[in-house]
């Protein structure tokens, strides 16, 4: 039996999706490619609940966040980046590398971001042009209150840039209804496809910011204006600026078809059910979660280690005895927590049961 990946991405994917990776290479241009590419974009727009433009950037989610911030915000222009975990910190690193003027707003790891604090920071500082936030802070499992954050940002008339890398597809995120201007996700988490692609949606307000920033652009590839120009001028035969990983896009097309056929309600329920089963199961075995359920996303469960039941020991036991890979903690949480993903095949009953069997054995063996 192969290893079971139960980390918060990349995820184990379905055989039908994997099979697309074996198709012969094809050019990233021409009529039949444009048909395939357009179908993937249309399907992704349905998953994003958006009518905005949407591009399939090539690269990791961090590259698409860099494209979002670098395209829309000029050097020395001010951006508010609230953070309550590792990935909020990542956004600040990216923004600083782009020489943006970053206004931080810190919340301790394990607590959700505060929409009122974001609103009052924006009211006090009219020079802040945009807010970049993480939806699901995967380092702690906290789900940030995005609807409330988005309405604060919109009421104050600023641009909202969202890292939805570990949430989009697995839980409700109506991009247009909430007014997310630039929304980034990846192929290899809740979209259940191989890594390598980062879908990003771009609102009209975001295009206005991108056009206003055109003279200060610091990139060609990670500039959304470049992607728009190719789509507009070359779209009938060559819709992207560069070569793209066609097999990965074919795999994503298959996966998007499957996710749409399953439907939002069933898909969200599948992830919630996996999270509930894991949380109930570990509590019955005497373990606790790191954060309360009411602030936790349904996509990762974070288990708190104890003196007599150490997180890293559980992680090693599952790997060695059960061929199940879960994640540990990052930075200050290294060695102190176990993060269990519920994305992709990890949301199946088969994986959940295998995981709980492993944890039960570990507890019965005295947490070695
Ligand atoms: C996984 C993850 C990332 C990093 O994505 P890459 O594709 O590796 O750049 C960023 N943000 C969040 C919230 C994540 O979960």
Structural description of this entry:
With 368 residues, the chain is of the alpha/beta class. It has helices at 15-19, 31-48, 61-72, 86-97, 115-124, 146-155, 175-178, 204-212, 224-234, 246-262, 264-284, 311-322, 349-364; strands at residues 4-5, 53-58, 78-83, 101-106, 128-134, 136-137, 142-143, 159-163, 182-184, 197-202, 288-289, 300-304, 324-325, 337-341. The protein has a seven-stranded mixed beta sheet, with helices on both faces. A three-stranded antiparallel beta sheet has the order 11-12-14. Strands 1-13 form a two-stranded parallel ribbon. Pyridoxal-5'-phosphate binds at residues 8-9, 60-62, 87, 134, 136, 138, 163, 165-166, 186.
Salient structural properties:
368 residues; alpha/beta; 7-stranded mixed β-sheet; 3-stranded antiparallel β-sheet; 13 helices; 43% helix; 16% strand; binds pyridoxal-5'-phosphate
Describe what is shown at a glance.
With 368 residues, this protein is α/β, with parallel strands linked by helices. The protein has helices at 15-19, 31-48, 61-72, 86-97, 115-124, 146-155, 175-178, 204-212, 224-234, 246-262, 264-284, 311-322, 349-364; strands at 4-5, 53-58, 78-83, 101-106, 128-134, 136-137, 142-143, 159-163, 182-184, 197-202, 288-289, 300-304, 324-325, 337-341.
* Assembly status: single chain
Number of strands: 14
Cofactors, ions and other ligands in the entry: pyridoxal-5'-phosphate
Report the biggest beta sheet as strand number plus sense, adding barrel if it closes: 7 strands, mixed
Helix content: 40-55%
| Head-to-tail CA distance between termini | 24 Å
C-alpha geometry: globular
Based on CA atoms alone, the radius of gyration comes out at 21 Å
Structural class, by secondary structure, is alpha/beta
Low-confidence stretches: none
Compressed to H and E, one letter per element, the order equals EHHEHEHEHEEEHEHEEHHHHEEHEEH
Q: Largest sheet, order of strands side by side? A: 2-10-9-8-5-3-4
Number of helices: 13
Beta-strand portion reads 15-25%
User: pLDDT average, as an integer?
Assistant: 98
